[in-house]
Structure formats: structure tokens, C-alpha cells
Specification:
Belongs to the universal ribosomal protein uL13 family. It is built from eight helices and six strands, in the order αβαβαββαααβαβα. The protein is an alpha/beta fold. The protein has one domain: Ribosomal protein L13 (Ribosomal Protein L13p, Chain: A, Alpha-Beta Complex).
Length: about 190
Amino acid sequence: MSATQRVQQWATFARTWHIYDCTWQNPYESAQIIRKHLMGLHKPIFHPMKQNLIFSLFPDDCGDHVVAINTKEIALPGNEWQKRAYFHHTGYPGGATWTLAWELHEKDPTMIVKKAVYNAMRGNLQRRYTMQRLHLFPDDKVPEDILANVSNQIPSLRKVPERLDKMDPDTVKTFPKIMDWPDDYILK
């Protein structure tokens, strides 16, 4: 076996760390991509029967780690913030609660992405253990020990437009205009 083949084999079986930026992304569409990397569906050695081995200490699980940043900046389509409700039960009688998406997001900015990924892995008998490889952060401040492991970036589904207040003032001035508003124009 040549050195190149050895490196390819090592890269196939190793758990790699991926980073995913959730800024302005739909968490339910993002969950499908994150799920693919957590379960190892993108690897050539994946086999569906490996996901259902319960009696061993999960040596055949080939999934990777995913670090999701900026979960505070997710975007739900339409009026999902007001209409979508999340169910939680404490396990005690009368412990059932329904929480709207905007309330849940205010309490914990990572919870909507976490619930979306967990729901996307329906049918995976090991999803509780697979979720341990998902690392969620509400902003882009990631601890150095986790950031040192990251070797790949998962591309975002949608391109995030650059905000006008974050652009360089010279770029804004030189940007071509369709029309110039008169100085005495008043917006109502």
C-alpha cells in the first residue's frame, strides 16, 4: 500500500470536524445537510446497517463532528416565528407545554437548530449518541480547543447578502445608482 493510499484510507475512517454558518439559513433545510455529516452519509464507507448496531460501543459509526455557529441569526420562512410551536414534556403529570418559536429562540438561541437536526435524524436508533457530535454556538465565538479540530467548512445553502451598514463607505458612494432623489424629497 502506497503512502497516498494510506492517507486516503486514514481520511476515510477518521472523524473530521466540519463548521457550518447558520446565518440567515432555514434551520430545517440546514438540518438535512448537518444530518448527512453527523451520520457519515457523505462517506464512501457508509452502510445503513452500521447505524443500527446497538449492542457494541458504536465502533462502526462513521459520522463526523459538526460545529454550527451563529445559530442566533437563523431565518424561518414566512410567519413561522409566530405560528410554529415546539412541544416539551417534563415527564410529570401536567408537564406538557407548547412554546412558540420566537419564545424558544429568546430563551435558548441554539434550541431550534438542535430540535431541527434531531427531528431530521428520525429513524436513526443512535440519534441521541449522534447528537453528541453536534456543537452549537449562538455566535461566532468558538472555543480554541474546538476550533483547532475543524478541518472543513460546509457551504451554506443560501448566499448571505452583505448589509449596507457593514459595507465600506467608499464602496457605497461609488456604487452605480438608478436615480438620484431630489434634495427636497420627503418620504411619507
